[in-house]
Amino acid sequence: MDSESRRDLAALQGSWEQVALEVDGVANPPDAHSAPGAITTFVGHQFEVRTRDGSLLLAGTFTLDASTAPRSITWIDSMGEDTGKPLPAIYQLEGDRFVFVAGDEGSPRPRVFRTTAGQTMRTFVRRR
Prior knowledge:
Order of helices and strands: HEEEEEEEEE
Number of domains: 1
Oligomer: single chain
Structural class: mainly beta
CATH class: Mainly Beta
Distance between the termini: 28 Å
């Protein structure tokens, strides 16, 4: 892993609150993988998404590569309909703001920070 990727991995650690969602070009649709106030926590290369009361909604692992333009991340869920499937994504990590756009398994990695059919964009702010 290159030094920029290591730096991004270190900056991502901790808890983040989702503040926006876009799926298939639609803003804030109903979502099975998050809930109002849901928190995503990153520890190493693992993530968990939990409701405010602590119920687990989603978990898995990820790898990131800050050397690409845009920066790339690949999610692998460990539960739910996408269990074990590599989901190609791009990300921006700037201070206390983290955004990613993920495509469905087998689709090309997204190239822009907006969605089309088969893509999901989530925006987070660091939870303090």
